[in-house]
Amino acid sequence: MGAASCLVWALNIMVVFKYMLCVMRADHEGEGGIFALLLNIPKPASGLLYIVAAIGASMLIGDGMITPAISVLTAYEGLNQGRLQDMGFAPFIIPATILTLILLFLVQPLGIGKIG
């Protein structure tokens, strides 16, 4: 079991350090991350490099879309637990989640400085 743990930790540490050294240091006109890597691919590069960068960019965009939805949904589902379970919040969880996300994304372009 110790050898398996050592292997898992070695792989995790290698991936984290490679991510920190490669992706986090990438720069394209002040922008960083996976999009900078995507834009800094040399022109005569192989198709595999483009595919890997496109998959990374897709995963980043997907994560940015799903994380707020899951966070808001779980917050509202918490109203249907414990003492509040019999209060009848269940039919309002999904509509309240959708309304909250729409409002958040409508207010987001204003920036935090204009809101608070």
Task: For this entry, give a set of tags.
about 120 residues; mainly alpha; two-stranded antiparallel sheet; 5 helices; about 5% strand
Protein architecture, described:
The protein is mostly helical. 67% of the residues lie in helices and 3% in strands. A two-stranded antiparallel sheet has the order 1-2. β1 and β2 form a beta hairpin. The chain is extended, with a radius of gyration of 21 Å.
Spell out the blueprint of helices and strands.
Layout: H1 2-23, E1 27-28, E2 31-32, H2 34-39, H3 47-77, H4 93-107, H5 112-115
Antiparallel strand pairs: 1-2
Helix pairs in contact: 3-4
Helix content: 55-70%
Number of strands: 2
Strand content: under 5%
**H/E element order:** HEEHHHH
Which class of secondary structure composition applies to the elements? mainly alpha
> Which spans have pLDDT < 50 for at least 5 consecutive residues?
none
Determine the number of helices (DSSP H or I, runs of at least 4 residues). 5
Shape: extended
What characterizes the major β-sheet?
Answer: 2 strands, antiparallel
Concise synopsis of the structure shown:
The protein is 67% helix and 3% strand. With 116 residues, the chain is mainly alpha-helical. The protein is extended.
